């Protein structure tokens, strides 16, 4: 059973991302109101906002935590074409007593010429690295050579994906058999091509090269997520597009060790669900990668689990306001809330539905 | 509707509308302006001054105003404005300080009419009075504003801002005598045209230069200003003090701002540097642009709405030497691409979810009225198309909630009671992992005991399949000859019962089953002390028929059916097995089809519990015990025989996401299995498991795993970048040599200050004086005393 605990986020606009830290005790949210908030879980299970600060001069699309080995470090990326790295300062200030903490900007990564749509720290074993992707289709990989100095980041790789990028995910595998790898998704809705590309690091050329394009995913992709690897020999990738898809990438053994070139993969579609009946915005794996959560324009979170036959099935639906889905959802509180602003809500819902394409946008008189 | 009709009358039939189109200019543009009927546009720049006609299919050059072989600096335009009443009249501001007016009605090629050279520096802005034909205003870098009467040769009045350079001047749309001026020092001044001596009002609008301002076209007294501080602010000037009503934060310094016609809250901006896009904002939602035009490749220098009553077409000129007409329907809408939801799984199976309020609320409505899935398409789209849509504005916000997984792995019963969702939650909650990691024994006892212990732990945590695996491992790898009697008996019980239950061998004769049950009945009391609970076993056996049906009968059974079946069959709860968990065991059976089966022993009922307990079992008896329970292999097979099976099983666990099991088995089996699995895989499992343990802050377990691992790469994890600097507690000097004897004072450095014995294990010391000793001793000493036990006089603190 899940119990919904509603949090008064007090963001002034849409929240675009939520991110738990490594230990699951802290949470960061980012919003179009250009701010990031950090939430700490108290012993009684309540979430308290311990920091809220303006991070960018545009919508903040994503926020992500670094491995705690590098300190309490956050990275954010924004419509203002920058990504930023933040570190919490531990000091003996009054803020601490009031339950507030102080975050300072360690660096701003300004290489992108367009909106930076995603930022992700690389798996810990690769050192302190992060990848950004931007709307002009460039993935940039930065590294902090000195992990003690978070203000020094060098741009290591610039990889062109040709398509406007919307999301990126590192393969978390720590195996030496798996070279560093990431998947990048595109929300391009003009071209009819594979929207998820997988890049792999080549030890010989010291460059990232495209290993695979998932040609079957042709609709705009909003999120990609590699499952925690946990000792598997293959990789599992979840994709949020107009439906939820789960791919299995099995690296094929190379015949000879000398073959340079990227690893070949056997790509299998493990599952494909259109239960959301709308655009799917987010996918997230649990820590053992046995459970996948997805959320879509229907305002629901759906949980997916595989049985022993590797058949994936929906095992739960959670509504954003915590009401049960199949039960009697007509709670009086929710009803009155929607009743007062009925037309407004419907109006905005149409705006949300328009996101699918431009054709409908024309109908908006705006 | 009133407005719509007005628009259509003003615009006529053919003049509005228009598609996105562009034309190349010869040179970068600095400013553009349209004539009143929206049919022509003038482009002015340092090296360009041309008039283009706006036609259906594109721009057509009409007139080049740059005439003469060597154009004077008067042609180098910083700004241009087309008169909104007299369509033959234009004014330009030159970079050399000249203000020039042009009359298109002049018959000769040179259309220049008047030249005012009163400003000493660049003129940044010229502005015609909206209704008065002959009144022109200019604002210059030299800090002065001048008002010209075009019927006279000189300016009629000069306004001194007493501030820095003037960046923009704008006549009020509604108030005949008022104009606003913006300055480089961040101020905005309001002037009455009749009073050149001093401004009417001044306020600081921005930090840094205010590059532009624009009066709202409706009579609201709203003034929008844009500055280098990247902000657009909307001021209400109707009150005594200028009040900031809206503030839009853009991503670059704001060069131009223009209210959108017919849309009360919309305005367009472009930037001075870095950003080439044109944004249209709804000032009520100041964070995400309402629409974006992304066509320009360089800085956009001039924007103007094509017609003062047409909100759909925008013209722009740019440093990239292009002139664009943007149709609003082709604009990109960042809001639509913005992600309305955030979702993240927490460590303990919690799920944080943030979603746009309307999505959640809309979904709830749909839930109540299942006839309309989607919730938002219930009404035809035209239902929303009301005359003034901008007045309807829903405040956009997100709801944030955390779904906390309830019910632990231990509370399997209540988890199942909750139906499907309950089953999921029980699976999503990660308590079982933490408990398992804590309770497992990985070393320090004989192999068989480790397996027993771990099997018990797994059983308690309601993971019977894992428990069975441990038991089987024990059977596989134990050497029966070396086992003690009780352990042997345990082995028999633990090994056989789960086998019976989960395998339900098809060839298991019912007679055997009966006999087995009977023999167990005898033993119930005598076996109470065994690790396994006999009652449970008994029930399991009785329930085994029902279970056999779904484990073997139909793999395609629905989850729901599974759950409901279990729900009915209460006795089976402890044996509750997720379908997938039956998989590896089943698989193993298939691995052993040729295993010799000694039927004569299975039929011989000579093993009873009492016998087993009373007498020390010989190897042969143990064999028979195993054979009764349908073990498929003789116990004398070498452990290596099972290597491939176990290897496959571990890989299966790892692939199912239970790397904990893989690593635990790997450690417990040690040499028995290690050679079977390649180092890379082992290392991968170890690193994955250690990473998980560290996530759960199980540092002790993590260190134990690191210590017990045999991979070189893992073992050294604990040694990297760890340096201990030790000072001798007697002489306070650094200890250089290895070991714990100080080479200066020749005393052992780690002597307990209380009992004066050498401390092994935990050594606690005062950070102040450096004295300390056994944890327990120090604790008890400092409970009663405050001074250091050595008598050094330091007031030690123990927290």
UniProtKB/TrEMBL annotation, chain A:
Its main location: nucleus. Component of the Nup107-160 subcomplex of the nuclear pore complex (NPC). The Nup107-160 subcomplex is required for the assembly of a functional NPC. The Nup107-160 subcomplex is also required for normal kinetochore microtubule attachment, mitotic progression and chromosome segregation. This subunit plays a role in recruitment of the Nup107-160 subcomplex to the kinetochore. SUPFAM superfamilies: WD40 repeat-like. This is Nucleoporin SEH1. It comes from the Eukaryota. Gene3D superfamilies: YVTN repeat-like/Quinoprotein amine dehydrogenase. It is found in: Chromosome, Centromere, Kinetochore; Lysosome membrane; Nucleus, Nuclear pore complex. Signal peptide: none annotated. Keywords: Cell cycle, Cell division, Centromere, Chromosome partition, Kinetochore, Lysosome, Mitosis, mRNA transport, Nuclear pore complex, Nucleus, Protein transport, Repeat, Translocation, Transport, WD repeat.
From TrEMBL, chain B:
Residues 513-545 are annotated as: Disordered. Residues 514-525 have a biased composition (Basic and acidic residues). WD repeats lie at residues 116-158, 203-245. SMART domains: WD40 (SM00320). It is an enzyme of class 2 (transferase). It comes from the Eukaryota. GO terms for cellular component: lysosomal membrane. Residues 526-535 have a biased composition (Polar residues). Belongs to the WD repeat WDR24 family. Pathway: Protein modification; protein ubiquitination. GO terms for biological process: autophagy; positive regulation of TORC1 signaling. Its main location: membrane. GO terms for molecular function: ubiquitin protein ligase activity; zinc ion binding. This is GATOR2 complex protein WDR24. It is found in: Lysosome membrane. It catalyses: S-ubiquitinyl-[E2 ubiquitin-conjugating enzyme]-L-cysteine + [acceptor protein]-L-lysine = [E2 ubiquitin-conjugating enzyme]-L-cysteine + N(6)-ubiquitinyl-[acceptor protein]-L-lysine. Catalytic component of the GATOR2 complex, a multiprotein complex that acts as an activator of the amino acid-sensing branch of the mTORC1 signaling pathway. The GATOR2 complex indirectly activates mTORC1 through the inhibition of the GATOR1 subcomplex. GATOR2 probably acts as an E3 ubiquitin-protein ligase toward GATOR1. In the presence of abundant amino acids, the GATOR2 complex mediates ubiquitination of the NPRL2 core component of the GATOR1 complex, leading to GATOR1 inactivation. In the absence of amino acids, GATOR2 is inhibited, activating the GATOR1 complex. Keywords: Autophagy, Lysosome, Membrane, Metal-binding, Repeat, Transferase, Ubl conjugation pathway, WD repeat, Zinc, Zinc-finger. Its EC number is 2.3.2.27. Pfam families: WD40.
């Amino acid at each position: 059973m899940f119990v919904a605990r509603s949090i008064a986020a007090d963001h002034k606009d849409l929240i675009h991302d939520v991110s738990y830290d490594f230990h699951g005790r802290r949470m960061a949210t980012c919003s179009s109101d250009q701010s990031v908030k950090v939430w700490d879980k108290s012993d009684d299970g309540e979430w308290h906002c311990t920091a809220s600060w303006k991070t960018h001069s545009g919508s903040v699309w994503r926020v992500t935590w670094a491995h705690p080995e590098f300190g309490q470090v956050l990275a954010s990326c924004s419509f203002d074409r920058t990504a930023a790295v933040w570190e919490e300062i531990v000091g003996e200030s009054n803020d601490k007593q009031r339950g507030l903490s102080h975050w300072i900007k360690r660096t701003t990564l300004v290489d992108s010429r367009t909106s930076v749509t995603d930022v992700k720290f690389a798996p810990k074993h690769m050192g302190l690295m992060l990848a950004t992707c931007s709307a002009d289709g460039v993935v940039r990989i930065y590294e902090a050579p000195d992990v003690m100095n978070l203000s020094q980041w060098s741009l290591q790789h610039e990889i062109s994906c040709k398509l406007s990028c919307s999301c990126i995910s590192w393969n978390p595998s720590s195996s030496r058999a798996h070279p560093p790898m990431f998947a990048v998704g595109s929300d391009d809705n003009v071209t009819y091509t594979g929207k998820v590309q997988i890049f792999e690091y080549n030890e010989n050329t010291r460059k990232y090269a495209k290993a695979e394009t998932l040609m079957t995913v042709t609709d705009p992709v909003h999120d990609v997520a590699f499952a925690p690897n946990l000792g598997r020999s293959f990789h599992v990738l979840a994709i949020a597009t107009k439906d939820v898809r789960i791919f299995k990438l099995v690296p094929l053994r190379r015949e000879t060790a000398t073959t340079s070139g990227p690893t070949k993969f056997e790509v299998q579609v493990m599952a494909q669900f259109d239960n959301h009946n709308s655009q799917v915005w987010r996918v997230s794996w649990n820590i053992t990668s046995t459970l996948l959560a997805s959320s879509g324009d229907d305002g629901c979170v759906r949980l997916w689990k595989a049985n022993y036959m590797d058949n994936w099935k929906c095992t739960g639906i959670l509504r954003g306001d915590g009401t049960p889905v199949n039960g009697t959802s007509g709670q009086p509180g929710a009803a009155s809330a929607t009743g007062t602003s009925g037309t407004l809500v419907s109006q905005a819902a149409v705006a949300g539905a328009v996101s699918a394409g431009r054709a409908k946008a024309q109908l908006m008189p705006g | 509707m009133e407005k719509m009709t007005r628009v259509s009358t003003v615009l006529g039939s053919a003049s509005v509308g228009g598609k996105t189109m562009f034309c190349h200019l010869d040179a970068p543009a600095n400013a553009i302006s349209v004539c009143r009927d929206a049919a022509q546009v003038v482009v002015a720049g340092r090296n360009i001054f041309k008039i283009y006609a706006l036609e259906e299919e594109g721009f057509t050059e009409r007139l080049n105003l740059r005439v003469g072989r060597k154009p004077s600096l008067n042609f180098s335009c910083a700004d241009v404005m087309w008169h909104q009443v007299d369509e033959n009249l234009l004014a330009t501001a030159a970079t050399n300080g000249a203000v020039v007016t042009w009359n298109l009605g002049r018959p000769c090629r040179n259309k220049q009419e008047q030249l005012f050279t009163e400003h000493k520096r660049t003129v940044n802005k010229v502005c015609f009075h909206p209704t008065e034909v002959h009144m022109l205003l200019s604002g210059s870098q030299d800090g002065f504003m001048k008002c010209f009467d075009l019927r006279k040769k000189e300016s009629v009045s000069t306004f001194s801002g007493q501030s820095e350079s003037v960046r923009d001047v704008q006549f009020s749309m509604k108030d005949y005598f008022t104009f606003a001026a913006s300055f480089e020092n961040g101020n905005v001044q309001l002037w009455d045209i009749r009073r050149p001596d001093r401004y009417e009002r001044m306020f600081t609008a921005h930090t840094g230069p205010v590059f532009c301002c624009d009066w709202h076209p409706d009579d609201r007294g709203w003034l929008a200003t844009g500055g280098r501080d990247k902000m657009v602010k909307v001021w209400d000037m109707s009150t005594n003090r200028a009040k900031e009503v809206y503030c839009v934060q853009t991503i670059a310094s704001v060069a131009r701002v223009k209210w959108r016609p017919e849309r009360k809250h919309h305005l367009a901006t472009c930037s001075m540097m870095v950003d080439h896009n044109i944004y249209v904002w709804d000032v009520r939602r100041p964070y995400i642009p309402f629409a974006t035009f992304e066509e320009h490749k360089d800085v956009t220098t001039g924007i103007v709405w094509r017609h003062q009553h047409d909100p759909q077409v925008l013209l722009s000129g740019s440093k990239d030497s292009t002139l664009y007409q943007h149709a609003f329907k082709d604009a990109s809408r960042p809001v639509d691409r913005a992600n309305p939801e955030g979702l993240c799984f927490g460590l303990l199976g919690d799920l944080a979810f943030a979603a746009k309020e309307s999505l959640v609320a809309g979904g709830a409505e749909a839930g109540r009225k299942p006839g309309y899935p989607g919730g938002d398409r219930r009404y035809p789209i035209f239902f929303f198309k009301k005359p003034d849509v901008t007045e309807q504005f829903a405040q956009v916000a997100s709801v944030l909630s955390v779904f906390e997984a309830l019910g632990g792995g231990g509370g399997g019963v209540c988890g199942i009671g909750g139906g499907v969702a309950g089953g999921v939650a029980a699976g999503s909650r990660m308590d079982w992992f933490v408990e398992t990691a804590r309770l497992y024994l990985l070393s320090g006892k004989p192999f068989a005991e480790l397996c027993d212990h771990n099997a018990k732990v797994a059983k308690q945590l309601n993971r019977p399949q894992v428990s069975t695996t441990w038991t089987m491992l024990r059977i596989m790898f134990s050497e029966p000859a070396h086992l003690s009697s009780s352990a042997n008996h345990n082995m028999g019980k633990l090994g056989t019962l789960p086998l019976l239950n989960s395998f339900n061998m098809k060839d298991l004769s019912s007679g055997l089953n009966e006999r087995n049950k009977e023999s167990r009945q005898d033993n119930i009391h005598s076996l109470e002390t065994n690790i396994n609970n006999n009652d449970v076993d008994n029930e399991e056996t009785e329930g085994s028929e029902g279970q056999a049906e779904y484990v073997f009968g139909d793999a395609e059974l629905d989850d729901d059916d599974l759950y409901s079946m279990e729900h009915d069959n209460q006795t089976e709860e402890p044996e509750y097995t997720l379908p997938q968990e039956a998989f590896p065991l089943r698989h193993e059976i298939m691995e052993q089809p040729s295993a010799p089966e000694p039927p004569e022993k299975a039929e011989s009922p000579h093993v009873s519990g009492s016998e087993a307990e009373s007498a020390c079992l010989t190897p042969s008896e143990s064999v028979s015990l195993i054979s009764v329970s349908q073990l498929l292999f003789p116990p004398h097979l070498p452990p290596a025989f099972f290597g491939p099976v176990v290897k496959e099983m571990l890989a299966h666990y790892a692939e199912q996401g239970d790397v904990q099991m893989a690593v635990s088995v790997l450690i417990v089996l040690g040499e028995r299995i290690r050679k079977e699995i390649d180092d890379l895989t082992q290392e991968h499992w170890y690193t994955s498991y250690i990473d998980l343990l560290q996530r759960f802050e199980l540092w002790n377990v993590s260190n134990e795993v690191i210590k017990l691992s045999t991979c070189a790469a893992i073992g050294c994890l604990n040694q990297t970048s760890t340096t201990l600097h030790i000072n001798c507690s007697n002489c306070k000097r650094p200890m250089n040599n290895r070991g714990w004897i100080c080479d200066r004072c020749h005393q052992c450095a780690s002597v307990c200050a209380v009992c004066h014995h050498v401390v092994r294990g935990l050594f606690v010391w005062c950070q102040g004086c450096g004295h300390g000793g056994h944890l327990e001793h120090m604790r008890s000493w400092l409970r009663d005393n405050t001074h250091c036990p050595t008598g050094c006089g330091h007031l030690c603190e123990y927290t």
